[in-house]
Amino acid sequence: MSRIIGLVDCDSFFASCEKVFRPDWANRPLVVLSNNDGCVVARSPEAKALGIPMGEPYFKIKSFANSRGVVVRSGNYELYGDMSRRVIQTLSQWTPSVDVYSIDEAFLDLTGRFVDSKGNFRGIEDDPMDGKSLGDIPRQTREELEKLAAEITRIVEKWTGIPVSMGLGPTRTLAKAASRIAKDSAAATGKKYALLFSRRERAQALANLPIEKVWGIGRRLSKTLALGKIETALDFARLDPRRVREDFSIVQEKTLRELRGELMFDVSTPEPQKSLRVSRSFADPISNLEELEKPVANFAAKVAEKLRARKIVAAGLQVAIATSHFNEKVPRRNVAAAANFSKPTNSTPEILSVALRLLRGLFASGYDYKRAGVTALATTDEEFARSQGYLFEPDPTRPQEIRERDRKLCSAMDKINSGFGRDALFFAAQGAAKPQFANASFVSPCYTTDWNSLPVAR
DNA sequence: TCTGGGGTCCTAGGACCC
DNA sequence: TCTGGGGTCCTAGGACCC
Question: What is the DSSP letter of A270?
Fold first, then answer.
């Protein structure tokens, strides 16, 4: 059975979040910066119109931005996370099948809305020309679908303040393409959505879609494809799938088939997360081990906290340190090391000690380290791991009493920190002062998640 | 010196996504 | 001077097994 898949994508999400609570900024250009106020990671439509590129280092546009009255914000992920939750919650009224793809996007499976009371699907018909590919959807279904898309985009903006675009198609890749078309053509059509169902409609849209805009085709592949004069999504969709698999990989073959309307990336039950990373660049480079231990201990503690919040445990841990990859004049070093825990864990003391041990093995002096990261590997459900763990012999390296003590300690710390603010309690290894990576000069209040930051109407 | 034919598992690296 | 962070998947190649 064919499907009807929608992709709802927030417009300039971070920038839109910032504007919701500042109506006075409604028509001003606004950019949001990455950690350390490093790069531009989001731009309002007005900022895009000024020609500020995505990913541009802030220092390069600083004076230009000032001269044009651009509002500059540091990333406020607590605010964005909460706004994202509101958008998703709003979406779930139209279908139970909402697959959150990223902080600002979700796939909706709307197929169920088009099955009539007798169980007949009123969706896409097979193409009478060849049984394998898709024909159009019935006229009436199409009209209903347009109405639905108009309603979804309108209500989400009304309820959350976040403008969204929507793409609809028989596969995820086509829904993605449709949402891009919706964004690009909104000014001309006055619609915040686009449909990509019939063969003719697809051929026309894909012919106008540059290959690098296709979901799953990145910069490198586009370059390679361009050598063979494959420049649009349509060029690509017309290739032989088997050849594509041979020349590239199964992923690209799937992308190709999805462009033709064959469902390859289904809305499946979400796989459990497999890894969890915390990493940051430092405001100033660090060259000695003692100083480097503090941020790494912080990342390790944060990893442990996140593991517990998600009720998962890690079987292993990786620590990575690196010098700047921009500065060509200083010696470079980019290394990582990993180790397994004797049993999967999410306890801060244990993760902290392994992280520091790995770091000490990794460290070499004579370098200016600019980044570090700690990754929990092979994460699994906590309850599952616990039940497995009891099947094995007691662990000599970390007796059960110690584990139990750590568990209580961590849960007490989590409670205290959630009540008294992040890092009210922390481990000595994390270092009391944390100046290294708090370089955010233009942070907005957490309007929706902090009682002290509620917006005030006068 | 010459030296088979399968498997599996793990890791590093490269590609992609937002 | 100043350049983000957190994920996933696939493949190739090496180690190891019989």
Answer: P
